[in-house]
Design brief:
By secondary structure, the protein is of the alpha/beta class. The chain has one domain. The protein contains six helices and twelve strands.
Length: 242
Amino acid sequence: MRSLKALLFGLAIFCSGCAASYVTPGGPVRLADINRADIAEVASRKPSPNFPARVAIVRVQAPQYKSYKSDSWGTGRFSVVTTQELLTEEQIQGMEKWPSVAGVAPINRLLLSPNLDSLDDLRVSAAKVQADVLLVYTIDTSFRVQGRVYAPLSILSLGAMPDRDAHITATASTASALFTDVRTGFVYGLSEATAKTAGLTNVWGSSDTVDLKRVEAEQEAFKLLVPQLEKTWVGIAKQYAK
């Protein structure tokens, strides 16, 4: 996989000498796929509520995810993006004001295992910072040009795209955000949201400007996700906080 990505980004650099090009970022990860367990085990999991709760946050993407300016950490069934392109300090401060929240902190690379195969690996990282609840989220970004949808790690030739037909759509994937109990793996709740931005012709003239629109779309998707997360959390706190 890494050799394929290196080849694609190498081709993009090579092509830049003749025509501008951009490699679309890696894909999302299905949260259900990394929460591996048989039905009996899932049914046996129980919450271990400890409220006010300390919440750890982590962004997961497809294995060996790479975007124009960001890399990911870990090998296995998924990877973690530790660069905070989406989550802002203001949003963290807002989450800390949610009911029954004792604190909020993103998981950094120093806490992560190099091999990431299941949600359990992330729970271990969250336990290292004494978190009670882990919030996991992923972003699914698609590029559509003249009606054609480009898959992750596709090469876009830039510079000749009509205004009305060139745009990026960034959506939170199915079950885009998941609250899970750090101690037991019990899933408290799920949230999702969708956003879209459109880019004008001159925006598609260089990789830098295309990636700026990609980040804007993803930031908008995450911004819309936050109120949904809060709504889910309020329900969790109401049910489990004593």
